[in-house]
Amino acid sequence: MSDYLTFLWRVFRLSFQGGWRFYAWMTVLSAVSLLGLHAWTRQFVEGLQTTGMTNQVSWGAYIANFTFLVGVAAAAVMLVIPAYVYRKEHMHEVVLFGELLAIAVIVMCLLFVTVDLGHPERFHHMIPPFGVFNFPGSILSWDVIVLNGYLLLNLHIAGYLLYSRYRGRPPTKAFYIPFVFLSIAWAVSIHTVTAFLYVGLAGRSYWHHPLVPSRFLASAFVAGPALMILTFQVIRRVTRYWIGDAPIFTLRMIMTVAMIINMFLLGSELFTEFYSPTEHAAAAHYLYFGLHGHHGLVPWIWTAIALDVVGLGLLVSPLSRQIVGLNIAGLACFVGIWIEKGMGLIIPGFVPTPLGQVVEYLPTLNEVLVCLGIWSFGLLLFSWMLRVAIPIMNGSLCAHPHLNLDRTP
Amino acid sequence: MNASPHNTVSPRTIEQVYRPLTRRTFLKGSAAAMVGVAGLMGALRPLLELEHGTVTLDELLQRHYRELKPADLRRIMDQLAAKCETEYGVHPHLRDIRPLANVEFGYALNLTRCIGCRKCAHACLQENNQSRADATDLEMSYIRVLELNKGSINLETSRTDYDHATVPAKDKFYMPVQCHQCRESPCTKVCPVQATWREPDGIVAVDYNWCIGCRYCMAACPYDARRFNYQKPTIAPAEINPNQSYLSNRIRPKGVVEKCTFCLHRTREGKYPACLEVCPTGARVFGNLRDSNSEISYILANKRVYILKEDVGTLPRFYYFFDK
User: Fold this and answer.
1) A121 to chain B: which residues are within 8 Å by CB?
2) Tell me: the pLDDT tens digits for A284-294?
3) Which residues on chain A are in Cβ contact (under 8 Å) with B227?
4) CA distance B25 to A71
5) ipTM of the complex
6) Cα(A346)–Cα(A207) distance, integer angstroms
7) Is there a contact between A38 and B211 if contact means CB atoms under 8 Å apart?
C-alpha cells in the first residue's frame, strides 16, 4: 500500500516536470479548458438559450462531438486486436497509448453529454438508489453503462500494466488478459449502442436505418487510427520513447480497409435515398442539395465527402507509404469523418422536423467555446497521461532504480 | 507493453528524474498555482449571477413524483407556489390532480371543419403558462397548426408560419398537431430517468422536478409535440393562469421538457381541454374511450378516421376524421 502511495506521489510530482515546451503546451490547453468552463458556467446560469439549439433541432454540436468521439474511443481496439489476438510484437510497443487515448476520449464523451443536459445537477437521477434508472428500456441508460464500463476497463488495464512496469515485475496475466479481451467486445458495444440511440427512433427516418451502426464502426476505425498515427509521430519526436514505422503502417492498412467499407456503405445509403426518393429522403436531400431554399449543411457535407475521397485516394495509392502522404490522408479522413458524424448525421436527423418544417442550426460562439474547452481538456488529460506513462514505459521511472542499475550494463 | 530494446533507457534514480525542490522552483510553482486558481475562479464567475433558489438541497434530494408521499408532495407544492409568487408575482392555486378510475381519454379532430384560425394554439398558451416573448409568440404552444395543400396530406410541403388576412386560404386545408398521447409512446421509452410516463388515463406526463433535460424524448417524438425550456420561462403576471397542477400547467423551471397533457387539470375534473372550448367550428371532440356512449367512441366507430404517421406504430389516442 505504501508502495502504491509512493508511486502516486512520484507520478504527481512527475506531472509538473518538463521543458519549456511542455509547460507552454499545458498552459495553453489549461487556458482553453478554462475558457470552455467559463462558457459552460454561463450556459448553466442562463440556460441552453446560449446555444444554437431550438425546439426543432434539439441536439447540436455537443451530441455530434459526443457521437464522433465514442467512435475514436472504440477504435483503441484496433491496437488491441493486432497486439493481443494476432500477437504482433510491434503493436505491443504502442497498445498502451491506445488505451490511454480511450480513457481521455471517454472522459470527453461524458463531458459532452453532461454539458448537453438542461439540469446537470440532477445527474444522480440516473443512479439507483437515488434515482430511477430506465434500464433496459432506454438506450441512453445502456450507453451510460457501456461508456462507464469501457472507461473502467481501460483505467484498470492501463493502470495495472503501468504499475507492474514501474515495480519491475512482469504483469500477472490473470489480472489483465481477461479484461483485455472483454474490452475488445466492449469497444464494439460502445459504438453500437451509441448508434442504436439514433437507429431506435422510428420517428426519425434519416436515422432509422440498419446501416447506421455498421457505418459508425467503419468510420470510427478510420478516424481513431488516423488520430493515433499522428499521435505516435508526436510521441517519437518529443519524448524518449521510440515508435518504429511498423505500428504506423499496420494502422494504415486498417484505415484503408475501414475507409473502403465506409465509402461503400455511404454509396449504398446514397443509392437508397436518391434512386427512389421517398418522403423519407427529405433529410438527405436537405443535407446534400438543400430543401425549400435552405442550404445550411450543403457546404459541410461536400467538404466532408471531398476530404473522404482525398483521404481514400491517398490511402489506396503508394503516396501514403511516405509518412507525409499518410499524415495528409489521416488528417483528411479525421476531419471528413468528424463533419460526417456531426453536421452530417445528427443535424439532418432534425431537419426537416417530423412535421416537415425546416429550421436550420448553427452553433453559437458560446457553444463552440464549450466544445473547444472539452477538446482542449481531453488533450490536456491525454498529454498528462503520456507525460507520466512514458518515463514508466521506457524504464526511467521505476520503483527500484538501484537494482536495475546493477543489471543494466 | 513490452521492453523493446529501442525503448529501454537507463533507469535513473528519483533524484535524476525529478528536479530537486529548491526555493526557486517552489516559488515558481506557487506562483503558477495561484495563476491557475485565479483562472479557475474567473471561469466560474458566472455562478455568482445564479438566481437564489435555482439549485436547492431540497430539490436535489427530492424523489420521483410517483415515489412521493402525499405530505412531501404537499410541502413541495407549497414551496413551488411560494417560488412562483416571488418570481412571477402571482400566487397559484397549485394542486395534484389524480386520474379518474375507468377513464381513458381520447381526442379526435375534424379536418373537414378546421379552418386554421389557430385559436386553439393561443388558448393552449393562455391555459398552460408556457414561456412567450409576447402574446403572439406561439413557439412554446403545444399545438402546431399545419397548412397543407389540398389534394394530399403531405407534411413535407406544409407550413406553420402562414400569415393570411383571413383563413382558410384558397386551396389549403389545416391540420393542428399536438401530443398524441400514444399507447406505444417512444418518448417515455427513451427517457433515461423515467421523468415522463403514461398515466393510467393515457395521458403522458412529465415530472418537471425530475427531468434532467437531455431532450432524448424530443428526438424520439414523431409529432414534434415536445418543447424545451431553453431559458427561464418569461410570462407577464397578468397572463398567468393561477389554476395550476403539478403535472401539467405549473410554471416550468428552465432546462426541462414540457408537453400537452390534454389539460389534465381541467379534464380530470370533468371539463374540456382549453383548445376544444375555444374552437369556433366545433372541430374538436374529446371524451372517454372506455365509455361506449361517448361522442369520441361514436366517431371512432362511424367516421372515416385518419391516424397521423400510423406507420411508426405509436398507436395514438389522438385521431383525425373527415365529415363528408
Assistant:
1) 55, 60
2) 999 999 999 99
3) 55
4) 42
5) 0.93
6) 9
7) no
Mutate: best of B141, B189, B193, B210, partner A, most A CBs <10 A: B193
Interface contacts (A, B; CB < 8 Å)? 246
| CATH topology assigned to domain A2-407 | Formate dehydrogenase/DMSO reductase fold (1.20.1630)
The structural domains of chain B, ordered by start, are 105-322 (3.30.70.20)
Return the pLDDT at A92: 85
- Residues in chain B with CB shorter than 8 Å from the CB of A396 are 9-12, 17
Domain ranges of chain A: 2-407
Please enumerate in sequence order all residues whose Cβ is within 8 A of that of B78, keeping only pairs 6 or more positions apart, or say none. Answer: none
B131 Cβ contact list (under 8 Å, min separation 6): B140, B229, B231, B232, B233, B234, B235, B252
Top pLDDT among A135 and B286 is at: B286
Start-to-end Cα distance in chain B: 77
Instruction: List pLDDT tens digits, range B208-259.
Output: 999 999 999 999 999 999 999 999 999 999 999 999 999 999 999 999 999 9
3-state secondary structure of A210: coil
Q: Which residues contact A409 (CB under 8 A, 6 or more apart)?
A: none
- Which residues in chain B have their CB less than 8 angstroms from residue A349's CB? 219
How close B110 gets to chain A, by Cα (Å)? 19
Task: Say which DSSP state B155 is in.
Answer: G
Report the first-to-last Cα separation within chain A, whole angstroms: 31
